Amino acid sequence: MPRYPSLPQHLKEQLALIDPVEKYRVKYFPCAVIDDKDNLIECVYFAEESGYIKVSGVWPKAEAVISIERITRILESKKRLPKSMADKLYANGESGMGYFTFTISFSGGVWKTYVTGSMVDFIEFPPGLSKDNVVGFLSYHKVENCQLGRSEKYYWCLYSI
């Protein structure tokens, strides 16, 4: 019996426009949503519930879940790393048990090292910079004397098929 509802047709169509990342053969859709109070929530992962639970082994905490019933629109997130970079980070694997360490170079010579949990798609960008300013990255790497960053707070929207 499903724990979460299925996606309504209009959200399925919008989610199909989001390019997913794949981790442990589960597709995750990092995106932004508009909720029923017209709030923009920039950092949301959509995932099918059976794949999610097989990988994580536990359901997300209630405060980290946005119910499908509250979502009116799905759109690209401005806080998402470029997909090609996230794909490479996931392919390289975690730096340690349940975390990633990587350094991103931005245009203008800015470097920032990140330590995230098990997901890498949403990060705090340096002031005035965005995913459009990302030049490259070093996986498993900390650059000495560089700014330390973290992932943005994100939410889960799980659904059944």
Structurally, the number of domains stands at 2
Oligomer: single chain
Number of strands: 9
What about the largest sheet?
5 strands, mixed
The mean pLDDT is 90
* Termini gap: 11 Å
Which structural category fits the helices and strands? alpha+beta
Radius of gyration: 16 Å
Measured as a percent range, the helix fraction is: 10-25%
| Proportion in β-strands | 25-35%
Brief digest:
The protein is α+β, with helices and mostly antiparallel strands and 161 residues long. It has helices at 9-15, 49-56, 83-92, and strands spanning 21-23, 26-35, 40-48, 71-75, 100-106, 110-116, 134-139, 147-149, 155-159. It has 2 domains: 9-79 and 154-159, no CATH class; 83-149, no CATH class.
List keywords for this structure.
161 residues, 9 strands, five-stranded mixed β-sheet, four-stranded mixed β-sheet
Describe this structure as you would to a colleague:
The chain is globular. It has helices spanning 9-15, 49-56, 83-92; strands spanning 21-23, 26-35, 40-48, 71-75, 100-106, 110-116, 134-139, 147-149, 155-159. Strand 2 and strand 3 (40-48) form a beta hairpin. It has 2 domains: 9-79 and 154-159, no CATH class; 83-149, no CATH class. The chain has 161 residues and is of the alpha+beta class. The mean pLDDT is 90. Strands 1, 2, 3, 4 and 9 form a 5-stranded mixed β-sheet that branches. Strands 7-5-6-8 form a 4-stranded mixed β-sheet, covered by helices on one side.
Furnish the topology, listing elements before pairings.
Elements: H1 9-15, E1 21-23, E2 26-35, E3 40-48, H2 49-56, E4 71-75, H3 83-92, E5 100-106, E6 110-116, E7 134-139, E8 147-149, E9 155-159
Parallel strand pairs: 3-9, 6-8
Antiparallel strand pairs: 1-2, 2-3, 2-4, 5-6, 5-7
